[in-house]
């Protein structure tokens, strides 16, 4: 039988070129030798096979964050890993942002023109010069979803959903469903996010962070202070005063407005001395057109409060984010909807106790009272109480931060995410007939086989 020689790519899509390829052994200090060995064993029979990812931005947001580490690690494991990015204009990203918001439950008007002209025409443009053949192709989120039928993509295609589609707008979900059901499987962060009408194998993979990335490296207080020195000077921050940090895109679902209300209420009522700062850090992802307007609204709400500080698109973003998380006495992330919230994982890994909302992926990460606190996202009073507790009980806060870090070590580091993709590659390549233990539904294996679209013979080497 002829061997598949791996992926064949001809595309004008933007392509990720890693600066560094990770050897699996580099992760041993964080996950131990046994887990590194298990990862290598899972990848060994897949050497040379192709794993291709397609999303809509190289920079900004959780998906880019994950792929920029997962792809280099897969390459280090001998996998032919790729990451391509579709191109779009403002109209395209406006409509896909609408999809995103509506899939997370918002009611918005949407017209056929937007769907056909802004969305499908852009997909067709992207598809025109794209030919991808790979053993496993992962299409991330709704933006590139229609590529699965409109583009020349061969191999087992999986749709990876990073958002909360538990109660999606019917119109957008029904539009996307044929594309998703055309795939050989779909991946969700938690079972609760599975939308209705899916007829394909479903799997669970948690987003993960890379402990070797500059953002997530462990640093001393001194190092963190020196990283932030110029920003502190520019914004008149006294490093002796406690810091409450909140880091994310400026987005309606991130609910920064409730953090401002709670922070101001806390200061008004408790009159802490010294008063803490609330420092927001936010960048604008190139596939998110709403950030600027949201930031303006939040600045208006802060109304010149000198203790509330906004850092936007900072230079040396990763070092700044890591250093601020390290120094933060409390990290707050109270989204009203959240696929996962990688920032929560990152803050936990830096040892910060997190006040997070009881929502989606955040609730999966925080064990209430042990690794942080869970609150209802709009419950200002609970946030005030938890802020007060954590700021006045530094030892307990530190203990929570330490437990949080260990929780991340066990569940949310990038080798685990790559291991799961390798298991999927084994399964879909027929190297292992046993369904992965992170399968979420129970279609039989023969049903799965009938759904699979293997690389056709004419593409095999
Ligand atoms: N992020 C960043 N700088 C910022 C804001 C966010 O580096 O100013 C990063 C953050 O550290 C995290 C990612 O962007 O790695 C956001 O992922 P998350 O899952 O929290 O949210 P998303 O933006 O994907 O909804």
What does the model show?
The chain is an alpha/beta fold. The protein folds into two domains: 8-210 and 413-459, Rossmann fold, CATH 3.40.50.2000; 214-411, Glycogen Phosphorylase B (Rossmann fold). α3 crosses α16 and α9 packs across α14 (380-392). β10 (277-282), α10 (291-302) and β11 (308-312) form a beta-alpha-beta unit. The chain is globular. The protein has helices spanning 28-31, 33-43, 62-76, 90-103, 112-128, 147-150, 170-181, 221-234, 256-270, 291-302, 317-327, 342-349, 360-365, 380-392, 394-411, 414-428, 445-451; strands spanning 8-10, 14-15, 50-55, 80-85, 131-140, 152-160, 185-188, 202-204, 243-247, 277-282, 308-312, 330-333, 354-357, 372-375. The model has no long low-confidence stretch (mean pLDDT 93). The strands form two sheets. Strands 1, 2, 3, 4, 5, 6, 7 and 8 form an eight-stranded mixed β-sheet that branches. A six-stranded parallel β-sheet has the order 11-10-9-12-13-14, with helices on both faces. It binds uridine-5'-diphosphate.
